[in-house]
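Exercise 7. Predict the structure of VLIG-type G domain-containing protein from Mauremys mutica.
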Amino acid sequence: MEKKTEDLLLETLDNLEEYEFKRFKFKLNEINLKEGVQAIRRRKLEKADTLDVTKLLLDHCKEQDAVKMTVEVLRHINQRDLAERLRHDALIQEPKSETQQVLEAADPELFQERRKATQQVLDKLNLVQHRRKKLRLTDIQKISSESLENQTPQMLEDLPWQFIRKVMSLNVGARNTSLVHGAYGSQGIGGDEEGAKEKEGDIDCNSVCVTKAKTSESLHPLDVLCAVLLCSDSFLQQEILSRMSMCQFALPLLLPALDTPRCTLLLWAMRDIVRKWGPHSLAESRGFREESLVLTSMPTISFVRLGSCSFSKSQLLNEVLSPSQQYHDFFIHRDMESGNIPREIADGLVEISWYFPAGKKSSDLFAEPVAVTNLRGDIKSHWLQFSFLTQVSSAVFIVTESISEREYKLLSSLEGSDTKYCFILNAQAEKHSEVLEQLERLAPVLKLCKPRLLVKSTILNKTEFVEKVQTTIGTIMNSTTKMDNMESIAVHARKQGIQVDEDCEECQGAKKRVKIITAKINDVEKYKEEIMRPLHQPRKMPRVEQCRIGQQGDTPAGGENRLKLYTQHKQYDLAHGMEKFIPGIEKLPREEIVYFLKCMRLDLDHIARRNNISQMKANSLRVEHFMRGFGHVYETESTQVKEGKMLKTQRKYSHFPGLAADLMLEGFPMELIDGDASNIPLQWVTDVLTELHAKLGGRSRMLVITVLGGQSTGKSTLLNTMFGLQFAVSSGRCTRGAFMSLIKVAENFQQELGFDFILVIDTEGLKAPGLARQEDCHVKTMLARVVTGLSDIMVIILENATEKKDVLQNVVHAFLRMWEIGHKPNHQFGHQNISDVSAHDQNMRDRKHLVEQLGEMTKASVEKQSRELAFSDIIEYEPEKHNWYIPGLWHGVPPMAPVNIGYSESVFELKKHMFESIKSDSSHRSIKDMPQFIECLRSLRNAVTHEHLDKTYNQLHVEYSGSAYNFIEEMDPSVSEKVTFIQSQPPNELDVGKLLCENQDKLICGEQKILDNPNKYFESRAKTLHLIEKHREEFIRTTTNLKCEPEHYLISKCKEVPQRQSIFRKIFEKRVHWSLTSHRGKKGKLNKRECEEKRKKAPKLLPILFVEKMMIHLKKDLEDQLSTTSIKIPKLKNLLRYKTKPFRIKVKYFELTYFKHVKEFYTKRHQHKAQELVKFLMYNYKKYTAEKVKSIANDDDTYCGEFLLMINEWLQQEDVQELHTNTYFEIDLKIHILQETLYEFQMCYGFIQENYP
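Solution. The predicted structure, encoded as tokens:
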């Protein structure tokens, strides 16, 4: 029998406590339901009981209006469950069919009520302005004074900002919405001495009531969550849910109808979540699975409430999902802080959480993943959500303590459902026996059996009851065939009339564009090789970058060939992927571009997981590869215009830098250093930052913060936690190269800090696994040097002892180089995975050891420079201020471990300290703007690039020269023997052909040995191959010529026989003439002693051919060395014409033009150091020359090549390299040494007589 409206109203009011009934009457006097209906006077309500109030309501207005008025008042006093029950009992006596859009969607009046309640919550939180103009991620990232404070909120409007900031910083206390008033904040608990002296028994009841009222002034955490999501755009929603997932918070699956007539399924908001777990089916092989959360199929278990319940359903779920010894509050429950505050707009919210096994059968609760949903509120009030859950769930657990006849009818409507239903009852409930009777009636309808009836009684303690629930869930999981992922769940939602967040036109359009690109990617490695490689693979197509960091420079040869390279690039059609990618960036609205890039990244990551490709491998394919191609296309066109091969009016891609600048303003990281090629695309980066400077109206003063450390030490995670950034941190992924992200400083904070933006640079690990080859280590050193030169603040992450030494070596070397040009960045050392509360004191010894290590490394770096320096000389370092101990990220064992709150708090303290030091040093700090940053980047790139280019080529040249010299030395005895034979034979008796045939086998074998060493060098230098590839043919050609030289030499010796006789005749005649002239006018013969003195004073003339061959050696060596520079080969005079004078160091010998602000003392110090080294070198060479002259048996010039080889090897030594000398120094030094050598030969007694008798 249906109840009358009067009975429903009376039953509802009888459920109110005395205090709540008083509040009801007080509020009822203020309610005006609609025009023409006045509020009930307070005089009539003062002494009225529940029956009197019911009669007053029905007398005052119509039955329908009386119910609405009662519902409105109940909501105002936070009795929402009673309000929803009354509304449904009075207005909807029978449930509507599932195919109809029931209750909320079908009730426009309810929609208006919810809109009004939502409006009130937004008013309290001061979020009304964001209802239409949504909050964006850049709004949250903005640096303000509030973002650097960690205070408990004092007003309701503080709650949303506290929640967002704490969630973005992975603080598991983000859901606490307790308020602390100013009085409490200033005095603290027990902080007022006078208050602490209150007498025992002195209790003020009014004070107690006030305290209780102040607690109720706050909002339920779920109300704050719903309000924040309502006021956030879809990208901020996605970021919030991703961080909530890391904190192991239950996520909102269905948002109630707040400002829309329908509920909303948050599918897009969960797209970015990736989970890794160890299914028991792979336990033996210790395998794991990694997949996007929305694409993972698993059973869904739902928990709902029917009527009121004395125990917390959410707390029960937390216990069910928490592993042993690792309890965690996935769901907010009434016993949590702020959990007992009545909900205002969150009723009807469906939350979802998951359990993922770790692959350990002994400790895992379930063998496979399972999703658990939780409906907030009574199912009678939220039948649409309940109906949806019955469609997608393998089982629904209904928690209840009473089942009325009406509720029986509601449950009976579920007949025929393939979902399993379980009931959780409380044996202590008053109506327990009645519930059991109703369940007996429902058993055949819902196919209930005894195992699905779980009774919470005193017989079972809490742990035993939780285990019983877990066992029931496990049994259902083993028997169910309903395995849905989030995408298939969204299909059910659409059928139910529930809107899905990603069904907007912008998202769907972006997904279609992405599918066109990714549909052709089946094998990632093959796709990248065939489609994407032409953009940056020299074997497929010439490179178009200006340089690789520390590996290629703007050489003259490169300059001559660059136009050819770019022209060849233009001849290639863009790959299919790039053809579709470029329109996705340049022609779409801002919001759709962001959707496009997000979808692109999600699809590529999914394809990589599908192909079992680690994100750290070189053959992985990511969005940055497409963005890199985007920049290559622009650089190609720019070079064509610069070289005059294209008119400016013909350009199609000149607007690309503006698009990239817009993406940076949206918070997207931009690639600064290409990690695959170790390349700085200088033209592209320069133009993007220039465009960004223009878009900012020239207000681009910025502070640069960089992180350095070993691979997989959590650098990207730390920056994301600290600043709310989006650097890639997906599982198994390592940053390659360097990426930069821009953060705005709030306008009211800019003057205090002294800059407008923060540029954050995330870098590749300084020593990644599998990247330990010599050239890779050098690249890491160059990377450290570049980012150190760009940085104002550096955070150096140190984790384990193995990598710590390698990281510190790179850091110290980079600091030393920057100190030499007067740049000293602020630095902080972060020690990861140290969580002891006494870490700071306990690690005093480690800090001292770190100081010792830094000092030793500094000493080792400068010991070859004949000076002494401590680490504190090159950088300001105080162990107590510059070391931070950061606990591990996870609290427990993944995959069910939440983030460690100590990690978040430590990172926040580090951030706070950095900004405090910024403010204190603002008067001494020089802040760069974008143009200055660009100039600094260009200078650093040129410095490290040219240094390594010269080093790379010179190393190869030394390899070749050594092999060539060994060949000459091996051939020398045989050739000398032949020369002696030729010189002793009359010209008409020489058989040249016979002489040459005797050496052919030896020559061929020697040629192969020469080529072997350079070939091995080419094979071992894969990453620098493109630098020296063009010189391969040159070395082969030179080797062939070298092989032919002995043949040509013997032939020339045969031709010299007549010439030599003539030369010696002239020399003899000249000496005779000199002797006669000097003796003329003297009487008598010269005695033996006088003859010897005359002979010593006679001119010692070297053969002309000998000097000329030395000149040929020198010229050829200089041609080889200068082939990689823009310096022309100087016109060399005969070596005998150079004046013998000391070698003086000149300023032009040093390559210091890369640094714009070098101090004067730096140049003078290098000049003095160079002079000392040259002096030492000359001493050794004179000593060596004297020994060499004594051992020379003929005029063979092999020793000249030996001298040049030794000079080249000396120039490659580290202490010489650190002087930054250029090619002018090398030219003048070689000429001086050879000239000195010839002078020594001239001065040696008997040179001509011994070698040319």
